[in-house]
Automatic annotation (TrEMBL):
<keyword id="KW-0067">ATP-binding</keyword>
<dbReference type="Pfam" id="PF00005">
    <property type="entry name" value="ABC_tran"/>
</dbReference>
<feature type="domain" description="ABC transporter">
    <location>
        <begin position="5"/>
        <end position="495"/>
    </location>
</feature>
<dbReference type="InterPro" id="IPR017871">
    <property type="entry name" value="ABC_transporter-like_CS"/>
</dbReference>
<dbReference type="GO" id="GO:0016887">
    <property type="term" value="F:ATP hydrolysis activity"/>
</dbReference>
<keyword id="KW-0762">Sugar transport</keyword>
<keyword id="KW-0547">Nucleotide-binding</keyword>
<keyword id="KW-1278">Translocase</keyword>
<keyword id="KW-0677">Repeat</keyword>
<keyword id="KW-0813">Transport</keyword>
<dbReference type="InterPro" id="IPR027417">
    <property type="entry name" value="P-loop_NTPase"/>
</dbReference>
<dbReference type="InterPro" id="IPR003439">
    <property type="entry name" value="ABC_transporter-like_ATP-bd"/>
</dbReference>
<keyword id="KW-0472">Membrane</keyword>
<protein>
    <submittedName>
        <fullName>Ribose import ATP-binding protein RbsA</fullName>
    </submittedName>
</protein>
<keyword id="KW-1003">Cell membrane</keyword>
<dbReference type="GO" id="GO:0005886">
    <property type="term" value="C:plasma membrane"/>
</dbReference>
<dbReference type="InterPro" id="IPR003593">
    <property type="entry name" value="AAA+_ATPase"/>
</dbReference>
């Protein structure tokens, strides 16, 4: 049986970052094929190449044995490839039938949209899927599960033969997952090829015949699911050595700086309790969507929480008040440095001194000399590369922008520093510098909370690891207890 879709030795880089390197696998008709790997393994880049969003730098894509070149998503759709993302992309104010027929609406002889035919076509597609959804109702208000079924109906309406499902069950209940799987199995049995991306191994073993495992942008193996245990899959996903990238210094652990007790926010996280001590690096680990960033934004006061307490240096902090957190001695380096951490149009020196602008002002006026002296001191300590301190921070490389965000908070002499994905999108050399800085700060008594999706970073830098899964704490591990396998097991809900 010839493959419907082949990925042959494809590679894709973004600047100096090699996202995918020489990956090959094939999707057979009538097969559900799992694609698994850690966060950052290259799965999303593969999906975007198959969807026509990115073009491979090298290698080829083949449909029915013929080489294809996708210049955009329309080409992928025309080739019979449809992608269903974790977050559906429907037009909320259009009807279900209008969403399904988008770009391919039936027309009357007067060249007007034939709504009767359009609704009838949608009804037939839902009958084929074995579900009942009113085709005339607006898409707004549909559950995530029903939105995904509409996306599947849209794929069928365009004669898609390859269906790529990217974390489709992340927001679904058990009953909704069962219904989605019943539909998926039916499509598979009709001869479609399904590529299924999930972090839930029980779903992979229940649905898929083969699995392709990726690690660090490279192909590890493609094997029958029946030949691999969960242990085998996890070991192949995470197997790598820690290196000098993680220069962890010994630190004297002091008194408790931060205590979080019973923190809850409806639909986001629940019953979150942990503490951080002076000189300690505590990592929040877990898969994308586990609630790590949301917890720390609530702790800092960016977001409100429904119940629970945050105690900092022995005093309870009022929720939803980042100004009070900053005044008490907290700093937050956010995940998205460009949107949340920096003002890209302002100068380097102004960005470094923003949190201290009142302290540096004299008689209500802020003078350039005081800003420049403070910015020069911290950018020198962090070995930041730039032309002039007056240059817009947007002209810096990603790694140097990250150093400016760190400098901004270190200039406030914090007692607790929260760093969310501190090395995302920066080169290996700068990663090592950031790790060395965090380690030396902890050795000097600073309490650090690090949110990271990179397991080697978590294991290489953390004194303790709090593993979150679907909004609650799945495990708390000491440095001695933690291994890549134990963290991954907890993050995926495996005992």
């Amino acid at each position: 049986m010839s493959a419907l879709l082949q990925v042959r030795d494809v590679s894709k880089s973004f600047g100096a970052v090699a996202a995918v390197q020489g990956v090959s696998f094939a999707l057979e008709p009538g097969e559900a094929h799992a694609l698994v790997g850690e966060n950052g393994a290259g799965k999303s880049t593969i999906v975007k190449m198959l969807a026509g969003v990115h073009r491979p730098d090298t290698g080829t894509l083949l449909v029915d044995g013929e080489e294809v070149t996708f210049t955009g998503p329309a080409d992928a759709k025309a080739a019979g490839i449809a992608v269903i993302y974790q977050e559906p992309t429907l037009f909320p104010d259009l009807s279900v039938a209008e969403n399904i027929a988008m770009g391919n609406q039936p027309l009357t002889r007067l060249r007007q949209i034939d709504r009767r035919t359009m609704n009838a076509n949608a009804t037939r597609l839902f009958a084929r899927l074995g579900v009942q959804i009113d085709p005339t109702r607006p898409a707004r208000g549909l559950s995530i599960a029903d939105q995904q079924l509409v996306e599947i109906a849209k794929a069928l309406s365009s004669q898609a033969r390859v269906l790529i499902m990217d974390e489709p069950t992340a927001a679904l209940s058990g009953v909704e997952v069962d219904r989605l799987f019943a539909v998926t199995r039916a499509l598979r049995d009709e001869g479609a090829a399904i590529m299924f991306i999930s972090h839930r191994f029980e779903e992979i073993t229940a649905l898929c015949q083969r699995v392709t495992i990726m690690r660090d942008g490279k192909h590890v193996c493609t094997e029958p699911v029946s030949d691999l245990s969960v242990d085998d899959m996890i070991r192949r996903m995470v197997g790598r050595d820690l290196s000098a990238l993680y220069p962890k210094q010994d630190a004297t652990i002091g008194e408790t700086v931060l205590r979080v007790e019973g923190l809850n926010r409806a639909g986001v996280f629940r019953d979150i309790s942990f503490e951080v001590k002076a000189g300690e690096i505590v990592a929040l680990a877990g898969l994308v969507g586990a609630g790590r960033s949301e917890v720390m934004q609530a702790v800092f006061g960016v977001d409100k929480y429904d119940s629970g307490t945050v105690t900092f240096l022995g005093k309870k902090l009022k929720g939803g008040n980042p100004r009070a957190s900053m005044a008490a001695g907290m700093g937050l380096v956010p995940e998205d440095r460009r949107q949340q951490g920096l003002v890209m149009e302002l100068s380097i020196e102004r960005n470094v001194t923003l949190p201290r602008s009142r302290a540096l002002a004299k008689l209500g006026l802020l003078f350039g000399g005081s800003e420049r002296r403070e910015a020069a001191e911290w950018t020198k300590q962090l070995q930041t590369k730039f032309g002039r301190l007056s240059d817009p921070v947007g002209t810096l490389s990603g790694g140097n922008q990250q150093k400016v965000v760190l400098a901004k908070w270190l200039a406030t002499s914090p007692k607790l520093l929260i760093v969310d994905e501190p090395t995302r999108g920066i080169d290996v050399g700068t990663k090592a510098e950031v790790h060395r800085l965090l380690s030396s700060l902890a050795a000097r008594g600073l309490a650090v909370v690090m949110v990271s999706s990179e397991l080697p970073e978590v294991l290489g830098m953390a004194d303790r690891i709090v593993v979150l899964r679907e909004g609650h704490i799945a495990a708390q591990l000491t440095r001695e207890e933690a291994t890549e396998e134990s963290v991954m097991y907890a993050a995926m809900g495996q005992s």
